[in-house]
Amino acid sequence: MQKLKQRWEIQKNWQILFPLLGAALTLLTSYFIVQGFVHSFGFNGYAYDWLILIVVTPILYFGLVKFFLWCFKKVENKWKVDYKWEMIAIFIVFALTGSAAGKLAGPLVHWIGLDNENVHGAVYWTLRILLIFPIYQILLVGIGWLFGQYQFFWNFEKKMLKRMGLGVFLK
């Protein structure tokens, strides 16, 4: 445990939540990906589908952990954070925000009254994708605040909007 605390620069016990949450969410993601492939290839319902899940999920999990550690090294000097554990919190916020924005866009398009049944598919998907952007921007700062990273994400948001030529909305 001490080695984990040193590696992620954990000062207080509550901060251990982020590496543990990151590991748990990575394992859950691995399971869902493998389960999706099992169902896509029609292996579900067979006696060996659980065996595929048990064998492939840990392999994918370790592959994803290696990938995320590589990502941490790439952004370590770009992102100005005080402690390494904050990078885990930031990655979790990005993952949750992207997933939530994608999920919320569907019901919002439906609420507006534009469904696949009453508009052309290209119009539906174009509007849905365009709605993801503002939803993502709002959620990014909100979820970042919940994870104690408000300042990082507010600065990130301002920088992104300025680069897109939308900095006028920040005044």
Protein described:
GO terms for molecular function: transferase activity. The chain crosses the membrane at residues 16-38, 50-72, 84-105, 125-154. Residues 90-166 form the DUF6787 domain. The chain is flat. α4 runs antiparallel to α5. The chain has 171 residues and is an all-alpha fold. The chain has 6 helices and no strands. Helix content is 73%, strand content 0%.
Overall outline: flat
Average pLDDT, rounded to a whole number, is 88
Put simply, the count of helices is 6
Structural class of the secondary elements? mainly alpha
Helix content: over 70%
Unreliable parts: none
Transmembrane segments: 16-38, 50-72, 84-105, 125-154
InterPro entries: DUF6787 (IPR046714)
Pfam families: DUF6787
GO molecular function: transferase activity
